[in-house]
Amino acid sequence: MGDPEAAIRQFLRRATASRDADLCLTFEVVGDETSWVQITSDSINFALPAAEPGQWLAHHGILLPRRAKLLSFEATSFGTYAHDGTDPAGIARFVQQYFHAAGVSLSGGIVSVRSEQLGPAPRKVSLPMVPPRPAVPGAPARRKSFKTTAFWGLVVFLFCLIGALNEAFDATSESALSQSGQEVDATLVDATVRTAYFIVPVHTVKYAFNVGQATYSFDGDFLRHYYRATGRSERSGSYSVDVPLATWKEAVATGSIPILYLPRDPWVNRPIAQDEGVSALAEHAISVVGFLSFAVAGAYGFLKM
Length: 305
What we know:
Blueprint: H1 4-18, E1 24-29, E2 32-39, E3 43-47, H2 53-59, E4 69-74, E5 78-82, H3 88-102, E6 110-116, E7 123-126, H4 144-180, E8 182-196, E9 200-211, E10 214-217, H5 224-229, E11 241-242, H6 245-254, E12 256-262, E13 265-271, H7 280-304
Helix pairs in contact: 1-3, 4-7
């Protein structure tokens, strides 16, 4: 009879040495893919036939390895726990108890074990099993947790790429405002104080101004550059913009605030007064670098899956 603990120890040594996060040891019942366990160098991924893994494991008396922590799960699909690789006996116990609790019909007590992606050809290991319990419902998709990671990696990449493009275009707009912006006193629409980081007061204003027969305001729409490129003139509403305290007080007292706008595209505008510190152009440049860094991280998470 094969020893699952020995197989797990051997795999963990190999996975740690190769530093390949995608290398996994898969336990599955021959002819039944509704119950399976996948082990990587730092996680345990298994088919979950219930809404929540913690309660299901406790109900069936399944013990996790030492220092295991829940990473993610999807109801009636999969559960994923992190492990530190120091308790192969605990991992082996988890595998045995998992298949016992799943109540699957084993062909002669044989569970197929294979090292996927870089491992050798599939081999068999015999696990000591007790008489099966009633079969549990559900047929989870294999490597679902990894697919979820890939999906969110793609989402992060696309969101951050759009954010980087926005900031890059904002930097171009700021440069144009500095060179050919026109001053005008805009009408104060609203003045509020919000709290940042729970303690820092931030003073914001909303304003409107006319150029010809059209009315414009500060444009903080996430898709503002798309609207400008496609010639869309209407906006869903005005947006608040941060201003220094002195400017905020003066605007409240006078009912107006001096702004800069670009004559060829009045939607490109901002208050003349800005908070002390780095310039607006430098802020946009820093934001571009930040968004691109997260976009690269998201792309890496997507491609690694």
